[in-house]
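User: For documentation purposes, I need each entry recorded in a consistent format: the amino acid sequence on its own, followed directly by the corresponding structure tokens. There are two entries in this batch. Please keep commentary to a minimum and don't merge the entries.

Assistant: Recorded as requested. Entry 1:
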Amino acid sequence: MSQANGLAQRQYQTGDYTSAISTWKSARVRESMPQLDYYEGRLYLDELANMYSEAWALIEMGDPAAGKKAYQFAAEELAQTYSSRDEFLRNRSDDLSDRNIFFQIYSGYLTQGFLNNPQSRLMRTLQEVEPVPLPIVKIDKTFPAAFKNSTLEQTAFRVVALPVIEPLTSIGRLFNGKGTCTASLVAPAIAITNAHCVTEKIDKNSETDWVPRRGMDPKKMLVSFNHALYAPDMVNVIGFETHNSTDWDGSVENDWAILFLDRHPVGRGHLGWLADTSASFPNQLETRIMIAGHSSDLNKGDYITMDYGCSAFRSDLILYYQCETAPGSSGAPILLVDGKFRHYYLVGLHNLGFREIVRQSGGIHISSFVHALKRAVEGANATN
């Protein structure tokens, strides 16, 4: 299977999506739950990853409807996996050794050593914290009325998307010691998220989130990057930068933070971004976008949820859209789904919570932070 995966990846990278999909499909030797066997379990995980690769390749081919169906099929397979795992544990809960083997196969912890190392214990502790709530603000009254009945929205969909291929493998889950957000790689060992994810209120009694905040301790932060269901690659945050050193003034347009990591996660690239942002997201023009983040309303945010094709509108530095986000998705990257810069170029950050009453949420355009991002990347390159 490894040879087939390598061939499919090469076909995909050269833009031969049809051949890549065919190769991934041919590599499948089973589509049913394996028995309790380490190597069969490993093979099953690889095949599940292939299913998610096929789904994204269909989107790259320009067939989002087929991609949606493929993602849904893969999600059903994933749900069956966990349902079978739970049934197995109920039936054999007295056999501790079998339970440990089972978790190694189906939870992605493929060596017992990983389960016992200090970083893994920290990860399990961090997973008990709650996602950071998304701030909610009033929608701009200048927002075009036609947007609420957008025809673009009819093609949008929302799916669970295991990260197995770029750009989703550049997206991670930020643990700040008190809650969770989303962060994405934008350069080697550099990621970006929301300022409200790495700061805390100065006035603890304030009822609103949009107040001045001070920076939190980066030593208590890490970013977890998943690949399918295998053990995550966890990277420590060694520092971060906001518009005001490490503090935040509470404004929507300054709700960004650049994270400096102790290393780049293994085997991953990063999202692109444009220093000249004028062509990436035209002002006052309806555009289709995608947002992928660890929304807590599905699977408690353990997997990436992707909103694809929802309509968006830019009003200078602020973006409004109809993607249905939830706490935990703060800091998720906003990417285009059409045009030259689609899928792989960051055009904004998600930061405003979805409001059911108006079915809108929002974010900030990259022009809010692109100059700081450029300085950070140039500074990192100069020291390496």
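Entry 2:
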Amino acid sequence: MICTVARIRSRRRRRSDSSRERRPHSAILVAGYAYLSWRLTSSAPARLALAVPFLLIWIVPVIYWIEGRESTHWTDEVLHGLCYICMGWLNFLFVLSVGRDGLILVTAIPALSAVHDLLRDAGATWVFLGSLGALGAGVLAALRGPHVRHVDVPVEGLAPDLDGFRIVQISDLHIGPTIRRGYVRRVVDMTNELAPDLIALTGDIVDGPVPRLARHVAPLAELAQGGRAFLVLGNHDYYAGAGPWVAQFESMGLRVLLNSHISVAPGAARLIVGGVIDPAARAVDIEARPRPDLASAIDAGVAFRLLLAHNPKIAPLAESAGFDLQLSGHTHGDQTNVRATAVSRLGLSKG
């Protein structure tokens, strides 16, 4: 049984809404630039060079807020990729700079004067070198592909036919300028090797429009065999064009849940798979919001209820709606990588 109670509309946000969102975004970048240029640079050319990555991070979301994220031109893809790289590098640069300043304060005593002087005089160079090294390590780790994490989920009173039920969760692939078809192919192969009973794709699957990314996303269609793959949209999927992507995912056989549920029956047990839209849906429909109560099929009687929600902040609403387990993405787990894709194998067991 399929119960769909939400729809995607293509209403644009008002320009005033975009302006309100740009202000905190711009303020954070200005503050970050002011701090790093003060602590790490000593000349006008160096300050100008440091401004470039901040400008790239600022301009990409501004363009998207004004014109949308559906451009298929190659320059959009290059700009998008540079934005991600700059964001990762500046993250490491900021953390290491704060660490250096903390050590400068700690060593401001006569007994540690030599260390203090070294940190003050040469520390900026080491901060730059360390941030570049960390960025390189993060890129290599991301390109090697995701690692599988095995999780056992004990559930009190679990139906016998659900004992050992295998779920593979895939989240935050961000297929786009930096994640391509080869990477997706590895994720699909890893997933199939785990022999899952159910596959949960919990959002942020794409970072770009359908015409540009359809061939890179295509391997995911193999996961849909037997109707076992369920998908919810994340905030980046909405930015990339929710309507076209829902149609594309459904044409691949993936079962997209939009404040809706699907009931499956493993043996004599009953499993309700619910999925909610992301809070970012308000970008295309000001009245849209996640509704776990509409996705729980509470009138369906006794069942194990599984909620797929990209944003984990939905958890209190999920609990109130009667869900037994929620699977989410969004936080990227270990954010030291440029991109952290989550592939988890979960096994349900009697508690």
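Summary note for entry 2:
The longest helix spans residues 74-106.
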